[in-house]
Predict the 3D structure of the following.
Amino acid sequence: MKTIATFILVLFIGVAAQAKETTQEVKVAAVEMGIVTDIVVEQKMTFEKTTEVARLYKRRNTLVKKALSFKTKRDRAKMA
């Protein structure tokens, strides 16, 4: 009896949920685009030669962090 009542309750809630949904049609505005047939070609090409230097600096605390992250024999996992 309990399973039948539960089934009817779930069925009723499902039907009520479907009845509340309303779908509205959304109209999409169409955009018309024409085809461009004019082609413009530039004959002048200029190249600039610039030399750029990238410098890489170490962070100032890297040596300290490396020294503090040491491991000892006691840190290792032990075999059971």
Remarks:
- The chain has a mean pLDDT of 77.
